[in-house]
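W.,

You were right to be curious about this one. When I first looked at the sequence I had no strong expectations either way, so I just let the prediction run and decided to look at it fresh. Below is the sequence, 507 residues in total, followed by the output.
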Amino acid sequence: MYWIRPLLTRVSRKNPRLAIRFSVLRAFSVHLQNQVTEEAANQPSHQLQAEAGKTNLILKTPKGTRDFSPKQMAIREEIFGTIISCFKRHGAVTIDTPVFELRDLLLDGHWEESKLVYDLKDQGGEMLSLRYDLTVPFARYLAMNKITNFKRYHIAKVYRRDNPSISKGRYREFYQCDFDIAGQYDPMIPDAECLKIMHEILSALQCGEFLIKINDRRILKGIFDTCGVSDARFEAACSSLDKLGKMSWEEVKTEMVHERGILPEAAEIIGHYVQLSGGERLIHQLCQDPKLSKSQQAVEGLEEMKLLFEYLTLFGVRDQVSLDLSLARGLDYYSGVIYEAVLLRQPNGHCKEHPPVDSVAGGGRYDGLVATFDPKGQKVPCVGVSIGVERLFSVIEQKLEMSKEKIRMKETQVLVATAQRNFLTERMKLINALWGAGIKAEMSYKKNPKLLNQLQYCEETGIPLVVIIGQQEMNDGVVKLRDVATRKEIDIPKENFIEEIKKRLEK
């Protein structure tokens, strides 16, 4: 600004009024410059904070979530494939529902679960929440579409605002694999099929010995009634009882008494019952129990439990099933038979001497849930099973790591290769023919790749066959087919190489 003073002096002599304007502008510009400088110096603004935050950004997944590598995804896809195959074998079709639901619909009458739900901000005048399971959306779907008979499976992500445990396969975002049968049928036939499905999937996945624990909400209700527990306290008490296994009975009893309002003497009697487990003999014993025999609900539950065990024997799964009176299933929409599968620990092969791990599958009957969504209160009886794929994945992944078994991540069947330069055009023609025939094929993206590197790639990724093209093969009208495992090579007429590859892949 040193040059402006002589200018102002000359201007002031010729035009005093213009000099005054220059003085005002100069003063204003100095003030503005000082103001901007002061703001920049004192600015802890959100922009500066954001810029500073970028330098301290921590790259991690949100708590209770995780990424999956190609190797892990190969294992997961195998698990999903096994589960879907079983669901389809039993005649189910699939549906999909939104990842979020209207909050009022999601929690209608089920406020005990509200603590598990992720709420979303108001969007377009609707209060929404992320779904915490696939059962409530299914019931809403049935009621909305007036469906009274349906057998469906649904595999999708759900969200729980819970304390995660990654090592145990417990997440805030995770997949559920659900199979449900809706409709009015004769007692225990659909229920037995759901248990058969659970047994088939756990057996097919070969994740170790397992036990399916079953109970009936009506039997539990009879036990609580005989102890003088009111209907208002029943669901809350079941939520406490559902923690048995993760907590000792003494801890559960303390929670029932101090947090759920159950009298100490009533809790003592409940403890006597819920520590019982067994099979047909236990059912007979309970039928003769003078207290339970006075409860109509308990009698109905026990009679249907007898029938269920008969069907399970016919389905060949009886040996892995046990009536366990401690099983409660914390969700309050369950109305009848309930079940849960646990894997049994197997250190040194003595699995029965060790406590079970967390459940890997569960489900039950929920005959009244659809009616809560229907304007006319129409009931659609339902029963279903949910496979805990995340926990199963954790177990299977650990098992594979211990066995050192190699996991193939690619499904590529053929690599198109060359040992010579300037054969990109021929390789592209061959791979295009393979793709057109429905064969999974790859080739190097380099114009002139080294043959050794291409063969090593096949061995590392498990690609079984290599088609090799070169000048000699071009002259003879053939392609060279190499078996990666045996390293044997044969020449095949170019016009027949697709058929020959298909024959080898079918073996």
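Here's what jumped out at me. The chain has 18 helices and 16 strands. And, maybe more interesting for your project: The longest strand covers residues 150-159.

Coffee later to discuss?

I.
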